[in-house]
Design goal:
Number of strands: 3
Oligomer: single chain
Strand content: 5-15%
Helix content: 25-40%
Shape: extended
Low-confidence stretches: none
Radius of gyration: 16 Å
Structural class: alpha/beta
Mean pLDDT: 80
Strand order of the largest sheet: 1-2-3
Order of helices and strands: EHEHEH
Length: about 90
């Protein structure tokens, strides 16, 4: 039975972009997930360099303090809600 759940990769580790081992492993996980038709979500993105590296690796989604801090749902909706003009 095929899986349809996204694969979450925790990248919020010290020195993600430094050295070769961790980025190589993350790239392999992303490639493996894509070959299995799974989407990938990187968790713990804390700076623009990490975000750029993950985009370059083909990561599908991301979350972390660099992309947005936790906030009440009402604040999120007020910030990102869009109105649809009448047809």
């Amino acid at each position: 039975m095929p899986a349809h759940l996204p694969l979450v990769i925790a990248v919020g580790l010290l020195g993600f972009g430094q050295g070769w081992a961790l980025p190589t492993l993350v790239r392999a996980i992303i490639n493996m997930a894509h070959h299995m038709d799974l989407a990938t979500t990187a968790e713990g993105i804390e700076d623009a360099a990490t975000q750029a590296l993950l985009i370059d690796m083909g990561c599908d989604f991301g979350q972390g303090f660099h992309l947005g801090r936790p906030q009440p749902a009402a604040d999120f909706i007020a910030r990102f809600a869009t109105t649809v003009p009448p047809a």
